[in-house]
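Project channel, design review

CF: Before we commit to the Neoroseomonas eburnea constructs, I'd like one complete example in the thread so the newer folks can see what an input/output pair looks like. Taking ABC transporter permease.
RD: sounds good, go ahead.
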Amino acid sequence: MSATARPRNAAIAATIRAFNANKTSWFGLGVFILVVALAILAPWIAPNDPIEQDIFSKLQGPSSTYPLGTDYFGRCILSRLLYGARYSLLIGVVSTLAAMLIGSTIGILAGWHGGRFDVIVMQAMDVMLAFPALILGLIIVAVLGPTLTNIIVAIAFTSIPAFARIARAPTISVKEREYVEACRALGFSDARIMFLHILPNIFAEILVMSSLWLASAIRTEASLAFIGLGLKPPTPTWGGMIREGFENILDSYWLALAPGTAILVVVFALNLLGDGLRDAVDPKLKGEQ
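CF: and here is what came back for ABC transporter permease:
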């Protein structure tokens, strides 16, 4: 084994040990993987068509035919829940990835260049952070229209400032280290130093933020759908299902209970996973000085 491989393997082992120290993080990871698997396999495991209506079976309680009951139009709640997971996860993952890419780039550029550029960029990020994510997303979706693409754009836009700030702070610290000075002395371009030498050293912190912000993105999508700015019916979404069930909450509680529980479980699992990732990148927990 080479001399460079040994420190790398030791760092990986220390990271895994730190992640293992928080046992609940594995539970969060397992639950999230299970939800993703159920969403992917929805066409094969859903007991019924999620948009097929049976008016004679409307508002039925859980049964062998409809394990989680039916809604006002006689549609299978379980089937809609499984298919709704696809849209919720798709919107959450894509919007978080877009925000991570754009926001991290902005934060690295601001931290690297500093000076007036840093001040102007971060003040712009502060202005965006002054608006609650839901309100800002609501404005964007109301202007652009409630389509899948527009919802992803709206949620990603509200998440950019958080990633910019989380990427900027470590960039300012890392750019002063010796290996960065060596890269400058060798004549490497700014872009090469930022994205090949600085980014890998701050990516762990960005990854922790992305796991936590994914939960926020799923909540925001559900909130937009609940107030009528989600995907148009009959497309199943968790927020839309809660909105439909809210109208019959006293008589048919299962309509809102199922999607509400699904959102709770996914958000809780992502927060547990985020805690584990945070512990894994914490130098104190990895035994580093």
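RD: helpful, thanks. Residues 11-48+68-281 form a domain with the MetI-like fold fold (CATH 1.10.3720.10).
CF: The two ends are 25 Å apart (CA to CA).
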